[in-house]
Amino acid sequence: MRKQIADEVAEVLDGIIDVESGPTVSVYWPFRGELNLRHWMHTAYERGAKMALPVVVTKSQPLVFREWTPECKMEKGIWNIPVPSGPASVTPSIVISPLVGHDPDCYRLGYGGGYFDRTLALMCPRPLVIGVGHPCSAIPTIHPQPHDIPMDVIITGKSHVRERSR
User: How far apart are CA 123 and CA 92, in angstroms?
Assistant: First the structure.
């Protein structure tokens, strides 16, 4: 079921992101039950996108994004999540963020560390932010706090796409 949902999300991403134009896209390395978009990450790279992974350098601080290629050297990051080696960082124009929950206003729940909110608050210009997760992650509200930043788009399957009203 997870693979099917990940494949559907990848198909929707292909309709939203023009990877051939060479954007810098931050994805994520799957952790716990997050959707595995590594196949999409490879194909987007092969079609022209510059790929990046978010990296926790210091706990409770904003993320940095390091360029990822299929050949790049990886090391264990915080929580043993693989991350590209080296200090060089890139600035993505598109950020794909995993979610544990989401509400109708496109606010997301993660694992509670606030890393994506902290990072997005500092990014100027703001990238296109896409939350991805399982269809069962929809809840009536996450009770957003002042520091919470909504996603621009939430994708939880082929027929489960929600865009934030502006």
Answer: 9
**CATH topology for the 2-163 domain:** Rossmann fold (3.40.50)
Residue 63 confidence class, pLDDT cut points 50, 70, 90: very high
Other C-beta atoms lying within 10 Å of the C-beta of residue 125: 6
Q: Supply the angle between the helices 38-46 and 2-16 in degrees, to the nearest 10.
A: 30
DSSP at 126: P
- Is residue 107 within 8 A of residue 151, CB to CB? The reply is yes
- Which residues neighbour 12 within 8 Å (Cβ) at sequence distance 6 or greater? 155, 157, 158, 161
Q: Would you say 23 and 44 are in contact if contact means Cβ atoms under 8 Å apart?
A: no
pLDDT in tens, 101-124: 999 999 999 887 889 999 999 999
The structural domains of the chain, with segments of one domain joined by +, span 2-163
Q: What is the pTM of this model?
A: 0.94
| 130 three-state secondary structure | strand
